[in-house]
Amino acid sequence: MTEFKTDFEDFIKKRDWKSLKQSLNDNDPIEVARIIEDVSDSKKIILFGLLDQEQSRLVFKLLEQGIQEQIIDKLAHNIRHISRFLNNIKPDDRTAFFEGLPGKVTQQLIEHLSPEERKITTQLLGYPEESIGRMMTPEYVALKAEYTVEKAFQHIRTKGRNSETLNVLYVIDREGNLIDDITIRKLILANPEQKLEELIDRRFVALNVLDDQETAIQTFKDYDRVALPVINNEGVLLGIVTFDDIMDVVEKESTEDFHKFGAFQEAITNPLKEKTFFLYRNRIVWLVVLVFMNVFSGAAIMSFEKVIESVVSLVFFLPLLIDSGGNAGSQSATLMIRSLAVGDVKVSDWYKLIGKEIVVSFLLGVTMAIGIASIASFRAPEVIVVVSITMVLTVMTGSVIGLLLPFVFTKLKLDPATASAPLITSISDICGVLIYFSIASMYFGI
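User: That's the sequence. What structure does it adopt?
Assistant: Structure tokens below.
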């Protein structure tokens, strides 16, 4: 890629547009997309404009939404160009792009589509957000059960040029209902005179057009397919979803969950390319909320002022103890959020896990208590009992909070990733302060 980047920079300096165009169209779309994302805005438009029809379609799909919008905005000045370009994009890729735009802009762009493409796009956008219908493509090859293998290949040659994949083909009845899928390998090895109905067993896996994207991810995982058919409630074949589309969703979901767990409002694709105010706005809300939450920690400490005055050495261990509870809670929450996301556990399993978590957190707490007791034996032997008991209880409390919050959020129909690490830490801090000074108060009789 470094050599390719050097070459294209030389072509630009020399204004050798012919060689630059050939280089861009001969290279892998992934490398070209990376180059376009790295150059200045003015060069982005120049480079993309040099791509041929097929290469521009492949590269556009790989670019970030913001860059896609820049390109479309530039193309909008040439109605013929933007019309040709929008009609050339795969329906599922075009729908994914339109989803990220304001409704008014989307409507304006749809007007540039041909009647056929406009109908397809409107249909796809008409399905609920994050449903399979939004992801599917109507570009597939469907074969009728009464076709012979030879006739099937004739149909594939005629209709298969724009198909998203030819690895798997779909067999339908006369009403368009899906009755099976068949691999291209099976067709190649079959007798040309055989009918497709003789080659199928009518056992297939399909997604419903209204299923959510999480269902698609789990189905691909369970059945290890490169593509899955999409049907409506009557069984009519409407489209297909391919593995690369699912991988895009998995990456997007993982990014969103990761940022939510870090208490971000929205996912941040690349902090180098985001505006300063966007980064500020994205982080400030949760931080302000957590500031007010942590006021309770301060209030709790103030209520134990006499205990602190009597045994000043308690203050030394305070950060260590409450941080341990928050860390244990974050660990537990991470495990639960991941398990809920991939379907390893369900909301109804919480009571099965709570007992196990209590035992595990108790063992963790005891182990950590031994460590803090050894420190206290040198620093402040008089508080060994207090810090040891507190360590066990704070780790157990933080772990249970971290386990339960994702289940609570899921039950409330909220994303469990919203039970973010800072939120769990803040709740654990408040509980840790109360536990620590309550035990100290009782132990020292203050």
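The radius of gyration is 30 Å.
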